[in-house]
Input
Amino acid sequence: MDITNALPVECISHIISLITPRDACRLAVVSPIFKSAADSDLVWEKFLPTASKLIISNSVTSSSLITSLSKKDLYFHLCRQPILINNGTMSFALEKETGKKCYMVGARGLCIELGSAPNFWEWTSLPESRFPEVAELAYLLYFWFFEVNARIETRILSHKTNYTAYLVFEFGKSIHGLQRTDFMSGVYIEGINDKERQRRFLDPSRNTPQLFHNRKDGWMEIEMGEFFNKNGDDGTLLCTLFDFDRFGSSNGLIIQGIEVRPKKG
Output
């Protein structure tokens, strides 16, 4: 006698909820009873972050469609389609394999030095951006004015997770000065600056495959640094990119935002 046929579906669902979303999907093809258990709301409610209802309620996206989905469909909706929160200045998504939380701070949510000065930065909309506005570097005569920061409360991130921060950007039709500029980046808890900095070249021809990537959404990203979020009580995570040390001029950089997501592997 197959022991799985003797167990109630709810019992099998409880057992499946203790594994990963990826393994739950694999078990769904084992047998009809496993599929029924693996697809149940009981399982996928466990895989969704406990704060997901509050996050969705804070979304500027139509929450009626999202809340009408089954828990499994909601999970994969959040994996495929980030939702906008915080009045459209931030997006929220889930990592598909683990269900851990991913956030991107959009350009309007960033602290951009001289961001309100039209002679330096232009605010525009692009159809390929998930946010209503992006920031385009129109002209900087002196690079010591260049600084872009994202601040994210560690309490909203998944616990016991190693995160990587990325600048999400592209180049405009006219590019000047960026090809020969190396920026400095840092990812650390605000007020606890460990002084660790990394050099980053935004020009693809000068980058390395380990740092520079083309994204599936058509944008580019470059790694800014890593952070381990233990219990979420560290404070505010600061992700910064800057250059203060040289003369020069620059234009053509378009910033969609800064994203933090669990590190692969």
